[in-house]
């Protein structure tokens, strides 16, 4: 059963077209992705989801490749097929030192050894947050601070994790089809 409808740019309301156009201008995309078109029936939802993603991914101090790696790992951990595929592609386009096989290896137990320490510590932290944020202790924060992250940047890491969880729930519940340019990793 198809759980969603897509609103194409041409048939969207003027307000939704503004959201679509802002997405494409901000990301450099030439097409509106499935996740956003699935929200196109409601200008307020499309705007809210896009503003959340835009503010979290394109604002703040952390570099975009790190944020994309966080979203990828959280999404893969949650089994979110759409988000893991989308953000795997983003990670690979932003960090040419990584290959698709590196991301596949990351999905295996004890795979942190395949990542540069900068990524590995954040991925470890993110997995602990996803598992149970109440289990975080000062040592978890200390590891990131030892890696050079400020308290403000750690809050930003948590905000990225939280945004990923929101999108994981949305895209997985609807079983969104992958955009043609995404390569399934799960």
TrEMBL record:
Q: Where is the Carboxymuconolactone decarboxylase-like domain?
A: 45-91
Could you confirm whether the keyword Oxidoreductase appears in this record?
A: yes
Task: Establish whether keyword Transferase is in the entry.
Answer: no
Q: Which Gene3D superfamilies match?
A: AhpD-like
**Origin superkingdom:** Bacteria
Report the SUPFAM superfamilies cross-referenced here. Answer: AhpD-like
Q: Which GO terms describe its molecular function?
A: peroxiredoxin activity
Q: Which UniProt keywords apply?
A: Oxidoreductase, Peroxidase
Q: InterPro entries this protein is in?
A: AhpD-like (IPR029032), CMD-like (IPR003779)
Please report the name of this protein according to its UniProt entry.
Uncharacterized peroxidase-related enzyme
């Amino acid at each position: 059963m198809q759980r969603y409808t897509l609103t194409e740019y041409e048939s969207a309301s003027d307000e939704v077209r503004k959201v679509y156009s802002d997405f494409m201008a901000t990301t450099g995309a030439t097409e509106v992705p499935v996740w956003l078109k699935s929200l196109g029936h409601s200008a307020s939802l499309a705007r809210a989801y896009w503003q959340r993603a835009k503010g979290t991914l394109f604002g703040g101090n952390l570099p975009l490749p790190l944020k994309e790696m966080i979203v990828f790992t959280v999404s893969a951990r949650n089994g979110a097929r759409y988000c893991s595929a989308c953000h795997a592609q983003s990670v690979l386009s932003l960090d040419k030192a990584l290959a698709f096989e590196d991301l596949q290896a990351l999905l295996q137990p004890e795979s942190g050894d395949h990542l540069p320490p900068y990524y590995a510590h954040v991925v470890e932290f993110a997995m602990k947050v996803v598992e149970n944020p109440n289990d975080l202790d000062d040592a978890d924060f200390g590891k990131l601070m030892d890696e050079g992250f400020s308290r403000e940047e750690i809050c930003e890491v948590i905000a990225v994790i939280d945004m990923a969880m929101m999108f994981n729930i949305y895209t997985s519940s609807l079983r969104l089809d992958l955009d043609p340019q995404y390569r399934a990793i799960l």
